[in-house]
Amino acid sequence: MTLPSTHRLGELSWTQVKELAERDPIILLPIGAVEQHGPHLPIHEDSIVAEWVADKLAKENGCYVAPALHYGHSGVFRGFNGNLSLSQATLRAVTYEIIEALVQSGFRRVIIVNNNGGNVGPVIDAGLQARHDLGVLVGHLYPWQLGYALMRDVYDDPAKAYGHGAEPEHSAMLAMFPDQVQSELAVAGGLASSSGWSPTSYTEAAIPGHDVRGTVLWDFSEVSATGCTGDVSLGSAKTGEIWIERVIGFCSAYIQEYDRNTSVDA
Ligand SMILES: [Zn+2]
Question: What is the CATH number of domain 9-158+236-262?
Answer without folding.
Answer: 3.40.50.10310
